[in-house]
Amino acid sequence: MSTAEANLTTCRKCREGVMLPLSDYGRDGASIRYKAWVCSHPDCGFNIRIDNGEVTFGRLIGQSRK
User: 43 lies in which domain range?
Assistant: First the structure.
């Protein structure tokens, strides 16, 4: 485990990966820090997101067409 990974939270679903923070941009171009957290383990896929002020978790994730 790297030093950076040692500071991240272990995934509570698979207990093998760590939760990685992801940022995004809002509709007006403002930065949204830590909009989502995703598990680093490729077979797990657990995630937590904030969408329009609502917290969701466990949704399937995929690649964006953007």
Answer: 3-57
